[in-house]
Amino acid sequence: MDIVIANESHFKYAQIICDTIAESAKVRGTGIAKRTPEYIMKRLQNGNAVIALDGDTFAGFCYIEVWGNKDFVANSGLIVHPDYRNQGLAKKIKKAVFDLSRKKFPDAKIFGITTGLAVMKMNYELGYRPVTFSELTNDPEFWKGCQTCKNFDILTRTEQKMCLCTGMLYDANEKKSEKNTESKKLNGKAFQRLKEIKETLFLKKKEK
Ligand SMILES: CC(C)(COP(=O)(O)OP(=O)(O)OC[C@H]1O[C@@H](n2cnc3c(N)ncnc32)[C@H](O)[C@@H]1OP(=O)(O)O)[C@@H](O)C(=O)NCCC(=O)NCCS
Q: Is the minimum distance from the CB of 122 to ligand 1 under 6 angstroms?
């Protein structure tokens, strides 16, 4: 398996990346921002994405987005093809894109929003912590990305204060001042419960 920084030679994978993201969203039945092949190609082109290939076969992908005058970067669009799941590949891609983010944007805070327990676990192990949306970028372009998510009405209803996603943030400056750098494991059960509570609150309200 090769995990490499993407470039124009990977344009041919843009369609399968989009299809795999869309297909997984359908299966999960959860919200996800839709991406077009053109959108993915831009990310492949500017050296801000990581792709995993098994020979010539697409296995996984993730990209960096820069927000709010480079104060924040997000590692978005993580996808592993179903044929390659549960082998630790997402963890490797996440680590590669995290290292790339730290190298290219050393002063930026790294953040993400997700409903996925797998992503929360990986982020936590990399040193992210869960935060309220108010600690994330206020760049309107980032939040516009949520418009294609099926839960967007919740975000609008709460005036962008909360949604089904959990916000997670890695702040390099905060890390420097922390003495205890022991690796920690996320309490998955607590997050699953929190997600269920949010779903009950927000989705029930919507049905009324
Ligand atoms: C989520 C996804 C990227 C995981 O890829 P993967 O290569 O199978 O993940 P890994 O094997 O590297 O597992 C990483 C960790 O997540 C956990 N994990 C994987 N899938 C999980 C799931 N569905 N639910 C809960 N935890 C999961 C693993 O147990 C592992 O944790 P551990 O280190 O404590 O054992 C993949 O299932 C996927 O592409 N899903 C659809 C798209 C998606 O949900 N993307 C996230 C957008 S927010």
A: yes
Enter the pTM of the model.
0.86
Which residue among 24, 86, 185 is best mutated to probe the pocket of ligand 1, counting the most ligand atoms within 8 A of its Cβ? 86
Three-state secondary structure call for residue 117: helix
Q: Whose CA is nearest to atom 22 of ligand 1?
A: 118
Taking only the tens place, the pLDDT of each residue in 133-155 is 999 999 999 998 888 888 899 99
- Estimate to the nearest angstrom the gap between the alpha carbon of 87 and the chain centroid: 19
CA–centroid distance, 31 to ligand 1, in Å, is 16
* Helical segments of the chain, H only: 14-28, 37-45, 89-104, 117-126, 140-144, 152-157, 172-177, 188-207
On the 0-12 / 13-18 / 19+ scale of CB atoms within 10 A, 101 is buried
| Residues shown for the chain | 208
Q: What tokens appear for 4 in the block? A: 């490499």
CA distance to 15, 22, 56, 167, per residue, from 110 (Å) = 27, 25, 30, 11
- What are the CA-CA distances from residue 34 to residues 19, 49, 86, 108 (Å)? 10, 17, 24, 25
Contact between residue 62 and residue 76 where contact means Cβ atoms under 8 Å apart? yes
